[in-house]
């Protein structure tokens, strides 16, 4: 910019008497020097702000924890309590939605799922020639003007598909920021009228995204936006607050298990299979936790000092204030970030005093979302319902799964028998069509991650697979042996039931 101005200033002389090369260089140098000075000033300001930040008060904003105040949840008092009355005989006599997908007309998904190279190659060529279909926020706002029509054309289920499922409702939270089109497809894949879905729209999301999401939710009695929205930052307690916002609202309804999702996930099982698996869990939580792997200093420092969020840098910063000893004599466990928790555990998490103290203590640590639930789940003396009293580090009975508790929820990227066939983004595999044969036989409940614009036929085929399996219902047998061998299923005495 400065250079341009300087050059413009010499414009007329440029025409009359061309500037020598030497002059040009000095003009440029002046420009660079100005940039350098400007840059230094910015750096100085940032450094001062950062310093002030790290010296500032680090006490936990108590009012953020107000969700804990709902000590007793009275389902009856709830304004939008939803009453469903299902006519189960209806569901066996039709009500199967139709989900046309023109892109799949030319695709052989079963062959792709079997890993047949010809079919995979054809799909890759197809993806090079065609763009994925995408519903924009504006389209959602338009299409949801007539909800009946929207639900029908998008092919949502309108009846529970079995009594077993109707009697075992599930609750989901989805944290979102953008890409409503992919979230709507995830919702459609897991949507059943007896379940409950809480969408947390980030405060930073655009007004249009929020509006379109509201309209989408408005078409379903059991889908809603969380009554409170957080601005979510990586590594910051705001992730937990966002989950709490959803769990708080979800607890107004009747369900058995809670699963939190992000928009890039996709189910590997049907609702019927999820219900069968979670019934086997019988109140136990599926929350990974490890003590050993949380011991390196670079991880321990996350709880050794108080951390602050520096919003304008979008980062967490360590301060000079050491943290106190954690409350209630807890051992801190770290886990991967996928969970299935029983309703009793969710209630404990939201209302128990010890749980409140622990969340407060973690509030100014780094990445507390990776610790709070694993810690509550592996300190049996806290008496959190469904928590685990066995040794978290002990290997389970099936040698293949060498980390203790199942990662029943999230696919293990580094699994030695499979290399990512998609692409790696920040150490996570973004699945491609080549991953389909592997994905369709995984025991985990959900797979992370799909990008709807990368090798997008993988997503389309997964949709078709789960949809077909959902329709097939009982006609497909379900092998529960993997789940039965999970330590907390295999040995119920290790599960805390206060
Ligand atoms: C349920 O549907 C069946 C057939 O559609 C009908 O005969 C029956 O009366 C319905 N039951 C109720 C409680 O509505
Ligand atoms: C589920 O919640 C945990 C704890 O807040 C969080 O770390 C994790 O990122 C969430 N998972 C997803 C998929 O959003
Ligand atoms: C704290 O927990 C450890 C084991 O984790 C136990 O040995 C110790 O007695 C406990 N201390 C108190 C005060 O409860
Ligand atoms: C994940 O993959 C790693 C690397 O192969 C393996 O050691 C580990 O046991 C796997 N974890 C699970 C839960 O399968
Ligand atoms: C799903 O069912 C349709 C219709 O029967 C069939 O054409 C398609 O190949 C099936 N796809 C999968 C993945 O099973």
CATH domain class of one domain:
Alpha Beta
Q: How many distinct beta strands?
A: 12
Proportion of helical residues:
40-55%
Largest sheet: 6 strands, mixed
Contiguous helical run count: 22
The secondary structure category is alpha/beta
Strand order of the largest sheet: 3-2-1-4-9-6
CATH architecture classification name of one domain: Alpha-Beta Complex
CATH topology of one domain: Spore Coat Polysaccharide Biosynthesis Protein SpsA, Chain A
Distance between the termini: 68 Å
Outline, from the CA principal axes?
A: globular
- Bound molecule types: 2-acetamido-2-deoxy-beta-D-glucopyranose
Give start-end ranges of low-pLDDT stretches. 1-22, 57-93, 395-416
Strand content: 5-15%
Mean pLDDT: 81
The radius of gyration computed from the alpha-carbon positions, rounded to a whole number of angstroms, is: 26 Å
Q: What is shown here, in short?
A:
With 498 residues, this protein is α/β, with parallel strands linked by helices. It has 22 helices and 12 strands.
Descriptive overview:
The strands form four sheets. The protein has a six-stranded mixed sheet with strand order 3-2-1-4-9-6, sandwiched between helices. It has a two-stranded antiparallel ribbon with strand order 5-12. Strands 7-8 form a two-stranded antiparallel ribbon. Mean pLDDT is 81; it is low at 1-22, 57-93 and 395-416. The chain has helices at 2-9, 11-16, 21-55, 88-92, 102-105, 109-113, 117-129, 137-143, 147-153, 163-166, 180-190, 207-218, 238-250, 271-281, 297-304, 343-351, 353-362, 372-377, 436-439, 457-472, 481-484, 487-490; strands at residues 170-176, 196-201, 223-225, 257-262, 265-267, 286-287, 305-310, 315-322, 339-342, 423-425, 428-430, 446-448. 41% of the residues lie in helices and 11% in strands. The chain is an alpha/beta fold and 498 residues long. One 2-acetamido-2-deoxy-beta-D-glucopyranose is lined by residues 109-110, 113, 464-465, 468. Keywords: Glycoprotein, Glycosyltransferase, Membrane, Signal-anchor, Transferase, Transmembrane, Transmembrane helix. The chain crosses the membrane at residues 36-55. InterPro entries: Glyco_trans_14. This is Protein xylosyltransferase.
